Amino acid sequence: KGEIADIVFMPGDPLRAKFIAENFLEDARCYTQVRNMLGYTGTYKGTRVSVQGSGMGMPSMGIYSHELIEGYGVKTLIRVGTTGAISEDVHIRDLVFAMGACTQTNYVREFGLPGDFAPIADFGLLIKAVFHAEQENLPYHVGNVLTSDLFYEPEKKKHEGLQFADMGVLAVEMETAALYANAALSKARALSILTVSDSMVTGEKTTAEERETSFADMIHVALEIL
Length: 226
Known about the structure:
Blueprint: E1 7-10, H1 14-24, E2 26-32, E3 39-44, E4 47-52, H2 58-72, E5 76-85, E6 95-103, H3 123-135, E7 140-147, H4 155-165, E8 171-173, H5 176-186, E9 189-199, H6 208-225
Parallel strand pairs: 1-4, 1-5, 5-9, 6-7, 7-8
Antiparallel strand pairs: 2-3, 3-4, 5-8, 6-9
């Protein structure tokens, strides 16, 4: 305790955590290498902030976010990751601020609630993210995302994700519903800021160079929330 800041950024890839720490934070120090899921603490404009890899999928995000909140007193968790567009209005390199997270899986149902819980973002974090995107004239969207367990879907299931677009869902990813549910249960604040890396509608994909540039935009928005 004490080695991890009250505010934690959570990319899925631990090497992205390393990239953020080395390129955006001052005096960053690695506090964990357990399972190669790297975590760092540094400062941004004088504010302490940590960055911790979450791994892929809701079970992994569920473990790391739970332990950060319950074991280390983290109050604010911001997921920074990539997503695939399922709306024709959402394009590669756009930012998506996940106001809510739909899911096809049982993660949230395992909480034992007598109904369906709607995982949503913290409004204070969300409005600050939108404000900064507006100030920087960055292309962004606010709305629902779909949190899925499947990265590679069988052909017979691929159309199912696109059906969520009929309900206004913007994009699909793999962690947000677990993060929002854990934060709600523990009275922490959470937000997912996502960069669109590809589109299931148009087939467009970003190059490695484009992803790096867009990723920097996403990190700047997250940091300015502080």
